[in-house]
Amino acid sequence: MSTLIDGKAQAARLREEIGRQVSRLRQHDLITPGLAVILVGEDHASQVYVRNKATQAREAGMASFEYRLADSAPQGKLLDLIERLNHDPEVHGILVQLPLPPQVDETRVIQAIHSDKDIDGFHPLNVGNIATGSSGMVPCTPLGCLMLLKHRLGELSGKRAVVLGRSNIVGKPMASLLLREHCTVTVAHSRTQDLAALCCEADILVAAVGRPGMVKGDWIKPGATVIDVGINRIEVDGRTRLVGDVDFAAVREGAGAITPVPGGVGPMTIACLLLNTLEATCRQHGIPFPDDIMSLAWGGTSSETT
Ligand code: GUN
Predict the structure, then answer these.
(1) What is the 3-state secondary structure of 103-120?
(2) Mean pLDDT throughout 59-79?
């Protein structure tokens, strides 16, 4: 039986430390980090995510600004709002919840956000910085996954990593981050052949495909570390359940460690959003990013149960 990687506990510790740093910023520097979250449309899952992000920002002592636009909102309205927030000194981070309705060009919207306020790390400047190994804002979900991996494994250098999924939000930045850690990385996707054999070679397997239970027990190298990014809503006996991309019960048997769903990657994603907002605030005000929080983010005490 494998070790459970407790993302909920690790995220709680990180949020606590972020809260301490926010209160220090507010008291010593009279600066309140501000996060603006924009939701276009009525998508239920997006509404839940946005509510959680705003709530946790407030709980960490940040200012939270929420904007809700109708599903039919023209692109120009969203771009005008972003332009206003780009110039608002009380807003240090801007997040536009994805996906967007079809009349809105996602690429155009992402590029409209000032790269200094792009706490999602989706702006091409930030993407380029990560891809070239420079420092830049790192997308929250892959950042959270990397923290869980480093916390569990320490040094990642030389490990074979397979990333399932090639999205701009998770798969591609995850691969960049693992490469930066000197892993040997393969990105697999819907057209990859013999996925099972490929996964069987992975010391680290990150599943981010959005297909419930796709990763099977016999795809796992014994002792591998499995990070399940999937959050899929399925109906079981008339009830909605959240499950990951990994067949948890079966994979747990052979893996060395695995993240549960819920309680694994999800909480880390929001904690990393707060971390990025804090970092953006410090950078915009020329304040060094506190060392305490970096050591907690990348090391810290154990958050695992067997
Ligand atoms: N939709 C799903 N994940 C994310 C995310 O990390 N950021 C944004 N902006 N939208 C998302």
Answers:
(1) CCCHHHHHHHCCHHHCCC
(2) 98
Mutate to test the pocket of ligand 1, among 95, 111, 118, 119 (most ligand atoms within 8 A of CB): 95
Q: What are the residue boundaries of the structural domains of the chain, listed by start? A: 29-114, 140-266
97 is catalytic: yes
pTM of the model: 0.96
Yes or no: domain 29-114 corresponds to CATH 3.40.50.10860: yes
CATH code of the domain made up of 140-266? 3.40.50.720
Q: Is 95 in the pocket of ligand 1 (CB under 6 A)?
A: yes
Spacing, Cα 221 to ligand 1 middle (Å): 30
Question: Which atom of ligand 1 is nearest the CA belonging to 46?
Answer: 1
CA–CA gap between residue 71 and residue 204 (Å, rounded): 39
Fold match flag (29-114 vs 140-266)? yes
**Residue 98 Cβ < 6 Å to ligand 1:** yes
Cβ atoms of 219 and 245 closer than 8 Å: no
Give the tens place of pLDDT for each residue, 87-116: 999 999 999 999 999 999 999 999 999 999
